Amino acid sequence: MSPPRHKPFRVLPGFNLTLGYTLLYLSLLVLIPLSAVFIKTATGGWDHFWLTVTSPRVLASFRLSFGMSLLAAAINSVFGLLLTWSLVRYRFPGRKIVDALIDLPFALPTAVAGIALTAIYAPKGWIGSLATAYGIRIAFTPWGVLLALIFIGLPFVVRTVQPVLEDLEVELEEAAASLGAPRWETFRRVTFPALLPALLTGFALAFARAVGEYGSVIFIAGNIPMVSEITPLMIITKLEQYDYTGATGIAAVMLLLSFILLFIINGLQVWSTRRIGRTV
Amino acid sequence: MSIQVQNIRKQFGSFTALNDVSLDFPTGELVALLGPSGCGKTTLLRIIAGLEQADSGNVILEGNDASSTSVRDRQVGFVFQHYALFRHMTVFDNIAFGLRVKPRAERPSENVIRKKVTDLLKLVQLDWLADRFPSQLSGGQRQRIALARALAVEPRVLLLDEPFGALDTKVRKELRRWLRRLHDELHITSIFVTHDQEEALEVADRVVLMNHGEVEQLGSPEEVWGAPKTPFVYSFLGAVNLFHGRSAPGEVQVGEQSLEHAGDALPAGTEVIAFARPHELDIDTDLSQPNGIRARITRIRAFGLTAHIELERNGPNDSVQHNEVELTLDRLVALQLRAGLEVRLVPSNLKVFQNPSPSTLSADHYIASGI
User: For A45-279, which CATH class?
Assistant: First the structure.
């Protein structure tokens, strides 16, 4: 006689409930609306889709949106890391206030941010007028777009790197120093590799946010065709022309490109995490 | 290389971590800094390493004042309690780190580095782990790798901060014997910090006992164990029985009772603390004799070579004092002891100290001694 078989059980509670809920939730909020984009696009036919997304104005907007978003995320990664470093590692008066300021781009309505940035960086604004004196125009050019995207992406980098840096033992840096490593070598070989996975997450979040950003950008961009039109604006424009399949077509391309880029960043992250000897 | 620290003071806010500490560490010795947590031993080690700066005082390395030399240039090997291995590097890269970050002119070639790291891995007996990551190693292996990494840069001194503190007992014992052998092989001046008296006495050539930011005693393990200079040292090293009393000619009066005590003449009436190790106390079941202190047996542990008898007695102000006596098994049988029995404790040897201030040396030191 074979020994009685026991019903297998799980120790962690709520598996069925939470997984079921996750699938339902994701379907209702993400999957179904997004697949609607593709379905609607398909109703317009291939020729219409191809003509729309390869028109010079739309292609220019792709270049601007994705190019500036990547650039903004990269700039945020550098300066966000610097900011996080000084916030975590040093104690200075007003540190709490600086810490709270970081979150402002999260909380501020994007239109308010856009208008404020425009007011300051426009040729007649405080900083804009100074820049104009040196022949630099910020607002109503692609640089204005970049500025707005840096503004809204900053908290993502800081808030993802901050907890990791706080948990990083000072002893690692002390050990490196006791082994004779100069400060730069310590940062390059010890601190930075430990922060890289979190930094990549921050980069990905800042990038994703920047690609989809609308409110803060349209005010400062000036929206000059072929120069400073972002892709979300192109979608709105198509909608205003009642060209719904055109709008969803652009959206579908945007989704696809974003997905591919995020997939690559995720891959990089897995690679960098593996490198520090953790299983993912 | 010799190390001297002179008049080191260190203050953290209102807490005095080190109060005018001066010590000499001769070349080639393995010295233990021993004391309870918060006694300043780790701070002293970090100041010697250059990871921390003293508020005043000097650190002299090989006759040269190194007080303002950065940790990068002090050429000290430092081993941390929690290993501080670089997680994203293999064991090999961890050990090679110190060689690879040298300025280009001093940096050895990759071949020399390979040879050196391999030799060090053999020295710590872990040469098969070169390609593993630290997360794949056990605690004991990690600490040996950390030691190899510190040795790679040929430090002039080796400083170890609670090196075995995060390991389990069995691995600890193994590793400290191994450290001792390694030191006998390399003869590098080494200081290690520990709160474990057994570890300090077993491994070190010399022991520095610290308490409240000051040095209480310095000497060989035999000296500090056999001739403790202060009540703190006596109670910190090993289990101890302690009696508060008043000195009288030829005896110590504890409340209404008395303990015979010859020598160490203190003026009669002085407040004293008397110490006896568990094996220095005998038990007498005859309650009619005047000498000795009455106590009640609470528990008898009769395994191993000797028996341990736990007792309770009434102290001043309705407090209950705990005592421990170590007897041979024969003696235990001869006395027919059992729990609940009222007996007299008679010391064969008693160490008497003047009580510096009756409040400072109380229960906390007794607990620190591990009873």
Answer: mainly alpha
